[in-house]
Specification:
The complex is a heterodimer of chains A (303) and B (294).
Chain A (H helix, E strand, L loop, with lengths): L1 H38 L4 H4 L14 H7 L6 H8 L12 H31 L8 H10 L2 H14 L6 H25 L3 H9 L4 H12 L1 H17 L2 H6 L7 H6 L9 H21 L1 H8 L7
Helix pairs in contact in A: 1-14, 3-14, 5-8, 5-11, 6-8, 8-11, 9-10, 11-15, 14-15
Chain B lengths: L1 H35 L20 H8 L1 H32 L7 H13 L2 H11 L6 H8 L11 H29 L3 H9 L4 H12 L1 H15 L4 H6 L11 H10 L4 H26 L5
Helix pairs in contact in B: 1-13, 2-13, 3-7, 3-10, 3-12, 4-7, 7-10, 10-13, 12-13
């Protein structure tokens, strides 16, 4: 009895220790995100202080107003109440870039699915020469530095007049998304029993109707998961965005990069934009963690 | 009729994807080879075929371009140091998370994955704030220990470690994801059998976990090493390659050559050199780390 009790205490301590160590590590990784979230609600007086305040005394939303709707901000009131630099409140709103990001993300995700899902179905149902190399293909596109294709693509897009347009960037993002769409959707199509198709075919269902009416509705969960992973890729992409957009088609990450120089001192506004840029993806991950992980590890892990 | 249409059906379904990749990967790559042998300046208003051929001169220039060689060296340095640290920390976290007495996976994973959720450029900018010499939180901690604050982003010897810290922060969670799924795939019975045979925890790690984890380890090292050559956003947001060229990575240098010097031909040549380096390193890693096939 005595032995088992002491063993249980030992096990309990062991488990407690593991949890505490994990908690510490995880908090360390989450801290910067937490910090930027807090900074977006602080006054400049609070973040330009040494040591900086951990929590804002009051959650102020004026940085969000400044960043997204500067016309609602009264500069004099801001200067007296919040000790804001002169340039603040006079920079351009980031709202157009959010709209650009939304257009480009939705466009590229829909197009990726339309192009990639049939290919995934084909790979799932028919044997090809080399269809076994799919995971290698996904991996290899992941390994190639994007700058290698970015240089010639810039020139190609420029010469056909697509540089600086939404369509141009959408088409490039479809290229980035496709390997993941085919990889993920193949897995979902594999899960649909072939008997269902055979039954439908005997009932006289044509190939197109079969795919649209029977297969796709059955794979709707997978379709949504794949779409959300593509949202993740397109929403965050920066290299092609900075090369292929101009003032009218800038996406959110490009708008963010401007904070480096032009708006280098505007920490509050910058944090507000980072929070807004991160929030959609964070929510997606919160609700669909398994699927996001499946996309992130595509090609690397046998699912 | 029905038979032939069924025969070509798979090809019709896959054709758009192939066409898309041909148009946006294969075609640009061929284009890029041609560019690499031309003096391809954006400023001059010449059409594609009017740009003069220069033979191998772009490649010759690259071999003697000290800034380029430095950029490749910086990239390899990040690859060696950051990826090693990511691997060690990532393996430790994965092993901890895989212990039987750990609850609340979803909670831990959600917090752990936050760095991967934001745009990488945002990660760079946010750490620019944290590393700030006057008001940064990192320096607040250093001062709390009674040490003088460090200008991380303004001094040559500190800027590169700062870039590495951000890379480690952002990508260790990815290493954890891959290794954890590898650990989960190891059948529980093996460990139970080892306990019956009287093996210590360390022994069962060495004899069971490590060899069975060899494949995921290789994959993750491969992906992360190749990712080092992609590093662009972090540098753009955090240091913009400076001070001097101390944090200019290969991708960033090529970008600067192409889009601030407008030297597209030279940039194309450089990108091919990097591509060959990446390919060589990939093959080396596969050769040395490939677990013995069973």
């Amino acid at each position: 009895m005595g032995i088992s009790a002491s063993k249980r205490i030992k096990n309990l301590l062991d488990s407690l220790g593991t949890h505490l160590i994990l908690l510490a590590i995880v908090c360390l990784f989450a801290f910067p995100t937490f910090w930027v979230f807090m900074t977006s609600f602080k006054t400049p007086r609070e973040y330009y202080a040494m040591p900086p305040a951990f929590l804002p005394a009051q959650f102020q939303i004026f940085h969000y107003k400044e960043a997204f709707a500067p016309w609602t901000v009264n500069p004099t009131e801001m200067a007296t109440n919040f000790w804001v630099e002169e340039s603040a409140g006079r920079v351009e709103s980031v709202t157009p870039q959010i709209i650009n990001s939304l257009i480009i993300t939705f466009g590229s995700v829909l197009l990726s699915l339309a192009v990639g899902a049939p290919a995934a179905y084909s790979v799932s149902r028919y044997r090809f020469k080399g269809s076994k190399d799919l995971s290698f293909w996904v991996l290899s596109t992941r390994m190639m530095p994007p700058i290698v294709t970015a240089i010639p693509l810039y020139w190609v897009m420029r010469s056909v007049g697509l540089a600086g347009t939404h369509i141009g960037l959408i088409m490039v993002y479809v290229m980035i998304n496709l390997p993941f769409v085919v990889w993920m959707m193949k897995g979902f199509f594999d899960d649909i029993p072939i008997e269902i198709e055979e039954a439908a075919r005997i009932d006289g269902c044509g190939a197109v109707a079969l795919f649209l009416r029977i297969i796709l509705p059955l794979a709707i969960g997978g379709l949504v998961a794949t779409a959300l992973f593509c949202v993740f890729l397109s929403w965050n992409e920066f290299l092609f965005a900075v090369i292929l957009t101009n003032k009218d088609s800038q996406t959110l990450p490009v708008a963010l990069s401007l904070f480096r120089q032009d708006r280098g001192i505007l920490w509050g506004q910058m944090s507000a934009v980072i929070v807004v840029a991160t929030l959609p993806i964070l929510l997606i991950t919160l609700f669909l963690q398994q699927q996001v992980v499946r996309g992130l590890t595509a090609g690397a892990v046998k699912t | 009729m029905f038979r032939t249409s069924r025969k070509i059906q798979p090809y019709i379904l896959i054709a758009p994807t192939i066409a898309w990749l041909a148009a946006f990967i294969i075609y640009p790559l061929i284009f890029s080879i041609i560019m690499a042998f031309k003096q391809f300046k954006l400023k001059k208003d010449l059409s594609f075929w009017e740009m003069p051929w220069v033979g191998l001169r772009n490649f010759e220039k690259a071999v003697h371009d000290e800034n380029f060689l430095n950029a490749v060296w910086v990239t390899i340095l990040i690859m060696l140091v950051a990826v090693t640290i990511e691997f060690i920390i990532g393996l430790a976290i994965a092993l901890l998370l895989n212990r039987k007495n750990v609850r609340g996976h979803a909670f831990f994973m959600t917090l752990l994955m936050t760095p991967m959720m934001m745009p990488i450029i945002a990660g760079g900018l946010l750490w620019r704030m944290l590393f700030d010499v006057r008001w940064g939180v990192v320096n607040a901690v250093i001062q709390w220990f009674g040490l003088p604050s460090i200008d991380f982003l303004g001094t040559i010897q500190w800027a590169l470690p700062a870039v590495m810290v951000v890379d480690i922060w952002q990508w260790t969670p990815f290493v954890v994801l891959i290794l954890l799924s590898g650990l989960r795939a190891i059948p529980e019975e093996l460990y139970e059998a080892a306990v019956v045979d009287g093996a210590s925890r360390f022994q069962s790690f060495l004899k069971i976990t490590w060899p069975l984890l060899a494949w995921p380890i290789m994959i993750v090292l491969l992906i992360r090493s190749m990712d080092a050559f992609k590093i662009f956003d972090v540098v753009y947001g955090l240091t913009f390659g400076g001070p001097g060229n101390s944090t200019t990575t290969a991708s960033f240098y090529i970008y600067k050559q192409g889009f601030s010097q407008f030297n597209l031909g030279y940039a194309a040549a450089l990108s091919w050199i990097v591509f060959i380096v990446v390919y060589t390193i990939t093959m080396l890693i596969i050769r040395f780390l490939k677990p013995a096939e069973e």
